[in-house]
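Quick one before lunch.
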Amino acid sequence: MPDSLPPLGELLATAVGAVGGAERPGQVKMAEAVQAAIRTGEHLAVQAGTGTGKSLAYLVPSIRHAVEKGSTVVISTATIALQRQLVDRDLPRLAKALAKPLKRTPTFAILKGRRNYLCLHKLDGGPADDPDDQVLFDPFAISRLGREVTRLREWASDTELGDRDELVPGVSEQSWRQVSVSARECLGAARCPIGTDCFAEKARAEAGRADVVVTNHALLAIDALGTAQVLPEHDVVVVDEAHDLVDRVTSAATGELSAAAVSIAARRVGRLVEEDIADRLAESGDGLAMLLEDVAVGRMDALPDPLRVTLTALRDAAQHCVTAIGPEKRGNEPDAVSARKQALAALEDVHDTAVRVLEAFETDTAHQRDVVWVTGDFGSQNPRPPTMRVAPLNVAGLLREKLFGENTTVLTSATLTLGGSFDALARQWGLPVAQSSGVKVEGTAIDKEAPADEGRIRWTGMDVGSPFDHAKSGILYLARHLPPPGRDGLPPAYLDELRELVEAAGGRTLGLFSSMRAAKQAAAQLREAVDGEILCQGEDSTSLLVGKFAENPATCLFGTLSLWQGVDVPGPSLSLVVMDRIPFPRPDDPLASARQRAVEARGGNGFLTVAATHAALLLAQGAGRLLRSMDDRGIVAILDPRLSTARYGGFLRASLPPFWSTTDPAVVRGALRRLDAAAS
Ligand code: SF4
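Model of the iron/sulfur cluster complex:
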């Protein structure tokens, strides 16, 4: 262990010099706060606007800590794009730049879930994955599966990391499953005949030796859920893109149950136990298939008796199969061990999800822990069979206990304060709100339930601001004169307004719509009315469309949710961000509506706590697409007049960057024309 390391300021200056940037006050403040959090063990939520250089602000104190203490720091991201930026760009440069002052080269590694790596044992003839019934009876799907698996085999002989994200273009989930295993299906390195060459094991070993391990929120959640020990020992976690943490953790904790899953489990188990035991499971699956066909898609508020009986039978049949498989026998061949593990993994999924669904209906709304809903699509060209899903209403307890309870945690993003306060997100993370340093405004989201053991957790909320001068660089246009948004597509007045704005801007417009239907409608109408090209999400890959949009300033790009958060186009190609309506969750969104109802059952304000918070986060993310570099100028236009007129409008406006604001369309069109003229 190096005895005395240079102070943080010196290391940060070296790091900034190495990546070719200038020192920024927000970055220095953030780095000092991260170091203080690591030293005191007091968690930190730090909002840092675009251009702060926040990755360096957490990486430098993290690396310093890891080298000084000989420990490991975990950095978690929501997106692959940020993961790549850290591993391919920031960390290699930092490692090189900091090697001399730290007296050794800091090390880093990337770690994903086992399912993300090619399993050489499976590829080498281990038990293949059972295709689901849909694939079995679809000749096109079978031939695509065959083609993709052949391509995967060719790729396997070339790849050094076996990481699914390296495979471009990607393959279907069904094909990938033929060459990968879950953690529960894996034989374990000691047992596996190819364990020494295993990609997942190599990644784990490398992560175990690294100072910094980069991972994703899903793996962080799996580690927290305790289903498998997936991350190496660590004492500090930095959660970047923390605005997405709750959604990602919720997804990782969501269970699925379908007749196809039962049928796969029954086929796997049928090779290992007596026929009548596996048949009982298969019959319960058939019963489930029949009953689910009559269940309406959407949230389930009650469990019909026949479904309860079938789920109970399914649970018991799965348990019976587990008992029949029995304990592992010594000296079994790897293929036999593998077949047993595959069967048990499928059985556990069926059993555990059936139990969760049954238990979800045992308590009243105020104390409900899980929400259940049914998805499926029977009428379209790509029908999907009905599937029951069960997800936690709240992940605050899990995060409080497993994330904040076991590590020092730094949460960061450009958007963490909503309505001017950290409270809304702090509640979702399970942090006590009284300690946040945010400024509360009227209408701040409230939920009456206070976490029981929150007093033990200490944290600080800090906004290090943004290097942009929002009031001078951008205008927030609130189209107060427009009618409220309709139920049936975009009102004609919205399309007229959009056309006038796009014409004034000379293209350069990112249209963020609350539904794909609205994005397509706007694209179709504007193609008739304006000269420049209108690109619409779904017509090509999103990255290709964003590339085209960035290349040609006369172009507009319209789309929905992934564009709200994923577009980074600095320069004059993007001068106008238009949002058609406040992005509240859809009324039929099962999870949001159940969360809202649960807050109300406890006497809180469900609409503000859930719907307005969701909308505020997306609005802030959408508005954040405008200014991406210091020279950027432009307008964020929100067509939905409720932002000016509704009671909750103040909370939403206070969540947006501090642009100069107007409701005058003539002022906005004038500003757009001037920007267009200056850029042309
Ligand atoms: S150790 Fe597990 S993941 Fe690795 S090759 Fe063997 S079975 Fe596959």
